[in-house]
Amino acid sequence: MRLYKTLVAAALGTVMSVSGAFAETPADTLVIADAIDDIITLDPAEVSEVGGVLMSQQMYQPLVTFDPADPTKIVGVLAESWEVSEDGKTFTFTMNPNAKFASGNPVTAKDAEYSLQRVILLDSRISFILTQFGITKENVAEKIKAMDDATLVIEVDQKYAQSFVLYVLSSFTGGIVDSVLVKEHEGTREDGSNDYGNAWLKADNSAGSGPYVLTKWDPKVSILMSRNENYWGEAPGVERIFLQHMPESATQRLALEKGDIDIANKLGPDDIGAVEGNGDIQVLEGNSSTIYYMGANVRDEALSNPKVIEAMKYLIDYDGIAETIGRGTIKVHQTMIPDGFLGGNIDYNPYSFDLEKAKALLEESGVSLPITLDTVVWNVPPYPDYAQAVQATMAQAGINLDLQVVDGGPWLDRYRSHDLDIWVGLWGPDYPDPHSNAKAFTVNDPTDPDGAKGNLADRFGWNSGPLSDQVLAAVQEQDTQKRAEMYDEIQRAHTDSSPFLYMFQDSRRVAMRSDVKGVVLGITFSDDRYGAVTKE
What keywords tag this UniProt record (predicted)? Predict the structure, then answer.
């Protein structure tokens, strides 16, 4: 652990001996171990990687949010209240007069206008979260505008379920930046356009109203945040948060047991089980909306055959993986909407390992076997373990997965550019509404055939046919019960026809030192909240 201690000491700017073990982490610092080699930005207008969103959420706040214990409850944050027009298209927010940024500047509707507009104007890979409301570069000035310092008006293109619009605004994309500060650091992009402070926010800078501010970011190594001394809410109980790249479960466990870290975010089942009897360690459990799946790129000739995809769904030992590898950290889940969401909990798991059925389907397909598929896997547990287990069962039917285990950056790059046959990964919703998943996995956008804007159906080359329109109809349905029934029907058809092999839903279990109090586990890995953390 010598190198790790050196990194902590250097990042914190403290004098620590690196020859001996820490008796404990610094009392004023929360030290977290996680896998963060996929992070490329902390700007809320473009951040989307799990670790990046986790840190961004501590620095930036949205207009509204939800209760992690009950996502159906939407509450104001930077907006004190809101009203919706009779036609359902105009949302008027009254800003919270108490809110202020880390700079000391008040949070106004003009800051919210600038922040949400810059998501559209930067045209980042997450801009689709807002452009789905019919907001474009051309009309954004009319669709998102501050009437005065206290009043923000957002106009959407059609009547949606009100909760859907509010959930979208609660996402990390809805983080509000200090427009006065960011405008001072606007620069020019390579094409000569305004970068709206993006380069400045991708350096060691932040401009939020959350409980922490960015102090230092060393990509693929660590992130250091410090207490926001001007925080308008209850002051955080620790002065700093230090997030260290430490992807290996065994290494995290050893560091946690020694007291070198406070929180281990990536412990596997063996290590979770090993620390549960340790009186110095607590294991927190929470709800999770994370889905583990495999995406098949149907641009490949063999994968374009529906019989091959169906056969592959019968070549995964779901129960075996859950029982022998997952052991309490996952459950079998074969639909696109997680349990706990509207439209979830439909208990539709039609596939199980059936070698003979798979072989019969492959014979019907007419595809010449064996076939070899380039399969891209993140080199962080549990992905290699899942991939190796699936590789073994698929090989029995002549489908050979060439596992290409890579760092987080290449893993995401190849996924986004669909430079692969199979992707082994996860999906965490951008907001706790079923449309976050249903749109991504189903809706086809004729203007974006490669799925660069985030539609996975297009990214994996799949035309979902009538399901795309059904999803777009479901998000407009005002009757909550009817809307749930629509998602039930859509999901069953989707599971059976799509090139997505849904396998598991995550069960949150996070280990931390027993003196750490106040951690709120989110419904995704990236939504944990550290604002109320103390170390006793």
Answer: Signal, Transport
Residues 357 and 285: their CA atoms lie apart, in Å, by 38
Domain shared by 259 and 325, yes or no: no
pLDDT digits (tens, 9 = 90+) for 247-257: 999 999 999 99
Q: Does residue 2 lie in a domain region?
A: no
**Residue 226 and residue 374 in one domain:** no
- pLDDT band (50, 70, 90) for residue 328: confident
Mark whether 116 and 231 lie in a shared domain.
no
pLDDT digits (tens, 9 = 90+) for 70-123: 888 899 999 999 999 999 999 999 999 999 999 999 999 999 999 999 999 999
Owning domain of residue 140: 60-203
Burial bucket for residue 125 (CB in 10 Å: 0-12, 13-18, 19+): middle
Spatial separation of the C-alpha atoms in residues 410 and 412, rounded to whole Å: 5
pLDDT of 12 above 70: no
Which spans in 171-305 are helix H? 179-183, 198-201, 249-258, 269-275
Distances 113 to 108, 116, 145, 391, 463 between C-alpha atoms, Å: 9, 6, 5, 49, 36
Distance separating alpha carbons of residues 198 and 215, to the nearest angstrom: 17
